[in-house]
């Protein structure tokens, strides 16, 4: 199990916490919490080692398109870059809703 940390500059705060996805074959879960810091701080826990550079590129691209300040935990079980981007977009959308939404 690898744990990888990333930080990206961010200025737009989010409203609510969000939890999307499930840890399972080819998927991942994302836990997102708003923060007052001008950063997106990510902790990625993955069972697939050797893909640090791929994570860096996927996350850089996402945060260039989505300026959101948040603390984000990603628990990965072999998700593809497309699934990572989709789940991050879902988490941001859920967080922007007026009602706090946390999947169980």
Ends distance: 23 Å
CA radius of gyration is 13 Å
Mean pLDDT: 91
Number of separate strands: 6
What kind of sheet is the major sheet?
A: 6 strands, mixed
The secondary-structure class comes to alpha/beta
Q: Indicate the overall shape.
A: globular
Helix content: 25-40%
Assembly context of the chains: single chain
Give the count of helical stretches: 2
The fraction of residues in strands falls at: 35-45%
Low-confidence stretches: none
Order of helices and strands: EEEEHEHE
Across the major sheet, the strand order is 1-4-5-3-2-6
Describe the structure in brief:
Helices cover 29% and strands 37% of the residues.
Q: What are the defining features of this structure?
A:
29% helix; 2 helices; 6 strands; 104 residues; alpha/beta
């Amino acid at each position: 199990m690898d744990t990888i940390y990333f930080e990206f500059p961010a200025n737009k705060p989010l409203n609510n916490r969000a939890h999307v996805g499930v840890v399972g074959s080819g998927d991942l879960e994302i836990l997102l919490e708003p923060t007052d810091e001008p950063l997106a701080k990510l902790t990625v826990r993955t069972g697939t080692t050797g893909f640090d550079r791929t994570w860096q590129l996927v996350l850089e691209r996402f945060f260039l398109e989505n300026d959101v300040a948040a603390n984000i935990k990603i628990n990965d079980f072999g998700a593809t870059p497309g699934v990572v981007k989709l789940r991050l977009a879902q988490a941001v959308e859920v967080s922007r809703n007026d009602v706090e939404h946390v999947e169980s």
